[in-house]
Fold these 2 entries.
Entry 1:
Amino acid sequence: MDITHCHYHPAEPATWHCAPCRRPYGDCCVPLNADAPDQTPGCPLCRRELTFLGAANSAQPFWERLPSFFRYGLQPGPLSLCAVLALAGMFMPSSLLLWFLLFSLATKYLYGVIEACSQAESRAPSLTSAFFGEGYSLFFKQLVVLLVAAIPLWLARGSETLYLLVDLAIMLVLPASIIRLALDKELSAALSPVQVGQVIGAMGWRYLILFAFLFALWQSPAYLAFFLGEGVPKAVLLPVMLFFSGYFSVVMCALMGYAVFQYQGPLGYIVATEDGADAYPEAEWRRRVALIEAEVRLKEGQGDSALDTLASALERTPEDFQLNERFHRLLFALRARERCLRHLAHYLPLAVRANPAQAATAFLNGRALQADYLPDDPAVCEALAVSLSERHKHREALSLLRNLHRRAPDYPFLARAYLLAARLLAEGPGDVEQARKLLAFVQARYPRNVQSPEARQLEALLTRLAPET
Ligand SMILES: [Zn+2]
Ligand SMILES: [Zn+2]
């Protein structure tokens, strides 16, 4: 089926559209602000307001979920309606007024089903809900629609072919008119060719699928009567027929309601998606908008504009790891050498705390831009060395620790850092002699660390690597 997907994420169904940019977007690209739920989100490219497409692309098409409509009719609400109709068929006196009352109640209930299903509510309304609120006049409005529809039929009665054609045309537009009546509750809407035509236009040729299903369901009670007709007394047949007419009507209304849900965008009945898109508190929302804008702009080849977006987001939240990470990657990808190196001074201390592996990558990027790049902070150097040693980048790790006691004489963890360096020397280049010297240096200079687990481990390692010395 012709489903539109997010322009930047081809696996995501489109839920928004920017007309000026001619770009469809999925929820992936349009985070919502939970603190301003009525705010229309903006386009990640041009920031103008987006148009909501509703669930047209994300909702499962109605023709793929037919069993769910039959199950819908088996809930307590619909079954009580069927039971009431059947009981009325058995016991209700043949008073026109009583039957009118019953049918207006049933119609109100059924239109309630269309409305509930158009908002993707999977629970059917209770029958008691039909006793409250407005909407009893819906039955009479529906009667008027049917009477109006009878006029062209009456006019065409002269020619059999014309009569059939008119009959077919009326049956074709009737579901659209019912949908209008259910949603607008106005007789004028149900009779307006423009508004009824809009329903059909919104669904396009899929309206024909809807019509075909509705037609088959509409015929079902009649077929049932045909099969049961032989030998079943009328006193039994009437309640059975009423019961099943009620059931199939609910199924039809659930189907029509869901079709409205599926085509809510083009129909102008924007409600939501079935699970509801994720909305975030203001701060988190701003963060996500910045990340997405940067991603989209970069994909559009607007690297500088992507940088600006992230830079202004970082002015608000300079400590945000993810924003910084994205900013770093972008600066590196754009080979903005000076800016990237300047940003590393801010980013690396953050990154070694938040994600040491990413910190190591960023450091290596720094090295790619400047061969002797070295962070100032000794703690950052040590953390990076640990992370790099886990990646077996011994040479780079060692370069971070070299001469640390001169570069940062007040660093309280010099001994620990040098023990790491000694281990790296032994494991990496296999320079056991150098490692021993370094260990001796640490033991002489920092005697308190001689019995530390690191020192003992290292001694054991050195003995194992070079037992003869
Ligand atoms: Zn997307
Ligand atoms: Zn746009």
Entry 2:
Amino acid sequence: MTEARTQELAKLLIVDDLPENLLALEALLRDDGLEIHAAQSGEAALSLLLEHEFALALLDVQMPEMSGFELAELIRGSSRTAHLPIVFVSAADHEPSYTFRGYENGAVDFLFKPLDALAVKSKVRVFTELYLKRRELRRQLIEVEAAHARQEQLLAELKQTQAELQRALRMRDEFMSMVSHELRTPLGVMTLDQSVRRDRLERGDLAYFSEERLRAMVARDARQLRSMTRLIDDMLDVSRIQHGKLSIRPSRTDLGELAQHIVDDYTVHFGQVPLHSRIEAGVVGDWDDSRISQVLVNLLSNALRYGEGRPVTVEVGATADGQARLAVTDQGRGISAHDQARIFEQFERGAAAGNSPGLGLGLFISRHFVRAHGGDIRLCSEPGRGACFEVLLPMSGQPQSSC
Ligand SMILES: Nc1ncnc2c1ncn2[C@@H]1O[C@H](COP(=O)(O)OP(=O)(O)OP(=O)(O)O)[C@@H](O)[C@H]1O
Ligand SMILES: [Mg+2]
């Protein structure tokens, strides 16, 4: 493209009211590598000037309607053509008496009739070369500016990548310390329990293992194992989501039954928090029941964890537009707009989390599960007024390729 532009011919404008003079000039300059445009009047010249960018204009001074000088003044008056070099072609006795007003503004020269072929050619060459050099400089300037702009853009992209990299590194470090901390707690309890049991056994103290104590131990072990298994499952799910390997296996599922089981289970384990359910019968669709259970468990455990011990409600129903609706509402401290914008991202925890255990993965995973069914999770909350997480699912949970 650059080459094509440099090879473009410089354009020369010749203006004379006599066609024979134009022909003579064209014949004289034809072989000088110029694109020649001829005009027989000032007006015709002005319309050519609107269309083309000229390297030089050769103006006959004496023309009937608009003299060469008048035309030159108009040329100088327009910002587009103000710097066009002008050579007046005049009879020798006319030029000195005329003071051309635009003279100081740009290159002006004179040729006198009868025209000397060599003088014409050399003047035209000097102006044309000047023009071509200027044009090349302008082109280079544009290229430099474009390169500069590209450089700035690359720099901005680099800065952004660097910031993202730093965030990723920070997240990795935080993640490592969170995971170790989360695993340490149940492992610590189990290690302690295990060493107490081993000591008792070594001392032959079988009385220590009363039925009541054994039951408590088994329950504690189950709790610690559940919390570690959940942590590892969450991490595996995140990895599946990140690698686009999350798969869902829809089967005929009664959402009300599924929710009721989970609510009953929670009532047994967390009986201290009032748990209400408003479950419509017959909300049946094609969903991956284990994934949807996981979503409800995540929302419910959040409501119990962050709901400040106040009643929690689980609802199942259908929306007016025929989607299934599963909602978990609590009356806890609520979620600020700032937190709402980020808690669905991985490892993001809001103000309510404090120092409580958790990796900030539950909502991230849940939203992916629901979206994989073609649905979505909506959050409605205000600080101090509790939170309502609403899951909307199309009745047939079409697997979505985006997850
Ligand atoms: N019902 C709620 N009320 C107030 N804040 C909530 C509620 N549910 C979630 N949050 C906020 O959103 C954050 C993200 O929740 P999410 O379930 O993703 O992670 P987590 O509960 O912190 O940890 P994890 O679920 O991985 O154990 C929580 O840390 C909490 O700050
Ligand atoms: Mg959670």
